[in-house]
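Protocol step 4 of 6: structure prediction from sequence.
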Amino acid sequence: MKLPRLKRRINTLMALLFSAYLLLSLSGCSNLTSLFFYPQQQYVRTPADINVAYEEIKTVTADGVEINSWFLPASLSEEANQQSDESPVVLFLHGNAENISTHIGSVYWLPEKGINVLLMDYRGYGSSQGEPYVPAIFQDVESTLIWLRARFPERKIFILGQSIGSAIATTSMALFQHEYQLSGLILDASFTGYRDIAQEVTGRHVITWLVWPLTWLLPTQWDPKEVIADISPSPILMFHSEKDPVLPYELGFELYTAAQEPKQWQTSEGGHIQTFNFEQYRDILVDFLTQ
């Protein structure tokens, strides 16, 4: 996401939090997590536009919402590290804005390395139905895991999350790792919890200090820091750039500290969710997926 757009959305979040406070006073509702999501329905491109083979997948959640995903099969090439009947699978969970058509740049290269990828659009994003909020989004993740495990009964399945997708990925891993035999978790530009990041953002300027008390209305039971220790003994690989202007490096490392072994921390380069623009971090990811 471009920084100016992000700043506008942070400002919008502050206004929404204040408006939500007034609504909460009338409705008694306590879930503000929908304010973290900025879905876009229109796809700006498909994998075919960048010469990547894909299959459009439709799944249905436990509450009856249709979820749209793109499956990118591993290609057989000299670079592929695994044979087609052994190649691992990555479920990719993107950031809070736009949809899979704009986030595909983070993972389109994986099929050439012998890795299958399923890019999932949360409810309300792209062609997926519904409205996004936590915890309903975990039903979206489970519907895709059901499809993946049915399609690949014996393959290794990993979850890769970026930005807010890292929070969704962490909690999903804790919820579903045993039922769907998940093999590991990868996080890029992560944070400890929804309330934590809202308080960090509102504490940056004297104007938003007025909004800061409202962040205590945000729930914490689905925060990644509450569950990441439960993921052990499944391995965790975490990336975070010290130059990330959106999610503080310190919050990512705090989450890493809360995780149990086996775990691996990699300081990366670039801005927000730009880790996989660099070949050396691509190699680290592929090694993790194929070891």
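Step 5 (inspection) to follow. Residues 133 and 240 are 25 Å apart (CA to CA).
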